[in-house]
Write a structure and sequence with these properties.
about 130 residues; mainly alpha
Length: about 130
């Protein structure tokens, strides 16, 4: 027998929803996450760059694969940035004191952003080279 919805914590009540109600609430949570991400300088910078780069991807790409790689690399960078921010928030929620594992988690999140940025830049440089210099 499933637990009664009024006995669940507010954070777990959405798990009892189904169908369009669950989709509606999940969308709201996702939009709240994007608003929270907007509060981070790095995410804002990447979002502003995406406003320019995503339309440019459709012009620069010479087919759907190139376009998908160009646009996808920008979106992947933003996704990794949001995940890094979530890791940092969770670590900060645990406590302000320094701990080796907290530092390690934050450093690995930062490294993930760096790798996503290198991938994004590499794809864009290769596409620009192919389009204008090859």
């Amino acid at each position: 027998m499933p637990p009664q919805i009024h006995l669940l914590s507010p954070a777990d009540r959405h798990k009892q929803r189904s169908g369009l109600s669950r989709l509606w609430h999940a969308t709201g949570f996702s939009l709240a996450g994007l608003r929270a991400g907007w509060g981070e300088t790095a995410f804002r910078q990447e979002a502003v760059a995406a406003v320019v780069l995503l339309p440019l991807a459709f012009w620069l790409g010479r087919g759907w694969v190139e376009t998908a790689l160009l646009a996808g690399s920008v979106l992947l960078l933003m996704i990794v940035e949001l995940l890094n921010t979530a890791i940092e928030a969770a670590i900060d929620r645990i406590g302000p004191e320094w701990h080796a594992l907290s530092k390690r988690a934050k450093d690995m999140g930062s490294a993930a952003v760096l790798l996503a940025l290198i991938l994004c830049c590499g794809i864009w440089v290769a596409a620009l080279y192919q389009r204008f210099l090859a």
